[in-house]
Amino acid sequence: MEKDRAAEAVRQFLAALDVDVEARGMERTPARVAAMFAYLFGGLGRDAAAVLTPPLVTETTGLVAVTRIPFSSLCEHHLVPFYGTVDIVYEPHAGRVAGFSRFVEAVDVLARRPQLQERLTREIAEAVLRGLGAEGVLVVCCAHQFCMALREGGTQETRTVTSEALGCLRAGSARAQAAWAMLGGACGDSAAADDRARG
């Protein structure tokens, strides 16, 4: 990234919106914003599937689930955050699995770029399929879209849920039903459990 060029672009952008970038406390804002976006877009050019390799070879023959993976990303429409959790269920091929922390890193790689929730969900599923050669994968993403909360009359509590199923876990199969059962209703039930715990 060309940091100086990015910082100057931020300065011009703020000035065009009548923000006084010379005001006390704002002097370094363009540079700070440029550095922050460099971090937030740090997943660009990285291959999430590669994060999951090389696989670990085990004797497992059952489904594997990694749930409640936190993420935050920027919506490509307005460059404001959306954030939430990702649940992954996959059917290993020939016992090939990945360490659980690898899934957290793979989600982070795909989230740290301008994104859409629907695309993010599919890209995670594709990365698991490619990286591990999995027989099938189910990904459920539950997120808060901050652009909805920022607008007048917006809600803080609305969530959006997207899912993607590939391979043997496509909808309609017995294995797909087993995968959904492992998630227990995905983020809906998780949220309800959290509410009960707080109550």
Short description:
This protein is of the alpha+beta class and about 200 residues long. The chain has helices at about 5-15, 30-40, 50, 100-110, 115-130, 145-150, 175-185, 185-199; strands at about 55, 65-75, 80-90, 95, 115, 135-145, 160-165. The strands form 2 sheets. It has a 5-stranded mixed sheet with strand order 5-2-3-6-7, with helices on both faces.
Q: Rounded to an integer, what's the Rg over CA atoms?
A: 20 Å
Element-by-element helix/strand order:
HHHEEEEHEHEHEHH
Residue stretches low in confidence (pLDDT < 50, at least 5 long) are 190-199
CATH architecture of the largest domain: 2-Layer Sandwich
Strand arrangement within the widest β-sheet reads: 5-2-3-6-7
Helix content: 40-55%
Q: Give me the number of helical elements.
A: 8
- Number of β-strand runs: 7
Strand content: 15-25%
Number of structural units classed as domains: 2
Average residue pLDDT:
90
Characterization of the model:
Residues 190-199 have low confidence and may be disordered. This protein has eight helices and seven strands. The radius of gyration is 20 Å and the shape is elongated. The protein has 199 residues and is of the alpha+beta class. The chain starts with a helix and ends with a helix. A hairpin with a 5-residue loop joins strand 2 and strand 3 (81-91). The chain folds into two domains: 3-40, no CATH class; 48-198, 2-Layer Sandwich (GTP Cyclohydrolase I, domain 2), CATH 3.30.1130.10. Helix 1 packs across helix 2 (29-40) and helix 4 (100-111) packs across helix 5. The chain has a five-stranded mixed β-sheet, sandwiched between helices.
